[in-house]
From TrEMBL:
Domain of life: Bacteria
InterPro entries, alphabetized: 5peptide_repeat, PA_immunity-related
UniProt lineage: Bacteria, Bacillati, Bacillota, Bacilli, Bacillales
Name of the protein: BTB/POZ domain-containing protein KCTD9
Transmembrane segments: none
Organism: Paenibacillus graminis
Any one Pfam family match given in the protein's UniProt record, by short name: Pentapeptide_4
């Protein structure tokens, strides 16, 4: 059963004002604009708020945007690698074909969020709170969800090899069409997790099981 996720409330892109942004100030509010082909680097700011904004072909680098607030926002073809977004509030936001390598979303709150065709290797979502979030066709190798609350979260056709899911309750989380050779989980959190028959061997070691193949007869 698919989780209902409300999309960003941006009904007409043409109504957004084109804007170039290169510097950010704490508690700055930016709304109703299209930010494209921009480089935002070496910024440190707290509680910057973006409302009804599209980021297109934007690179953020060497920046800490602590407790950023994103509401009705779309990121398209953006590079947000290694940016510190810790304690972010992210609502009705989509990340499309973005680089999120090593991005720090720890302790973030995510509601009605989609990440599609993104690369999020080594991204941190530790201690995050998710409610209505979908990861679709994303590469999330060694991403970290330690003790995150995963409520109505979907991982669809994602590479989650060596992802850390320790401390996450995985009941009703469907990993059956994801690829991985192993993930880091706690045995007590596996109850109700949905996996494929082929993936069962990856979890057997956690239970102390030894799988014997027909060739071992």
């Amino acid at each position: 059963m698919k989780t209902k996720i409300d999309p960003p409330k941006i009904t007409d892109e043409n109504s957004l004002l084109p804007q170039q942004v290169h510097t950010l100030q704490s508690k700055e509010e930016i709304s109703h604009c299209l930010i494209s082909d921009s480089l935002i680097e070496y910024q440190e700011a707290d509680r910057v708020s973006f409302d009804k904004v599209i980021f297109r072909n934007v690179t953020m680098a060497e920046s800490t945007l602590h407790a950023i607030e994103l509401t009705d926002v779309i990121f398209e073809n953006c590079d947000l690698s290694n940016v510190n977004f810790s304690d972010a509030f992210v609502h009705r936001t989509e990340f499309r074909n973005c680089k999120l390598i090593g991005t720090d979303f720890s302790r973030g709150r995510f509601q009605n969020v989609r990440m599609v065709d993104c690369i999020g290797d080594f991204a941190s979502f530790r201690f995050g709170k998710f409610k209505g979030t979908a990861f679709t066709n994303c590469r999330l190798v060694s991403s970290d969800y330690y003790q995150a609350g995963l409520t109505h979260v979907e991982f669809s056709e994602c590479d989650i090899d060596q992802a850390t899911l320790a401390g996450c309750r995985l009941k009703e989380i469907d990993l059956s069409d994801c690829s991985f050779t192993g993930v880091h989980v706690d045995i007590e959190d596996l109850a109700g997790c949905i996996i494929s028959a082929e993936q069962a061997a990856s979890f057997a070691g956690l239970l102390g099981l030894v799988i014997k193949s027909d060739t071992d007869q």
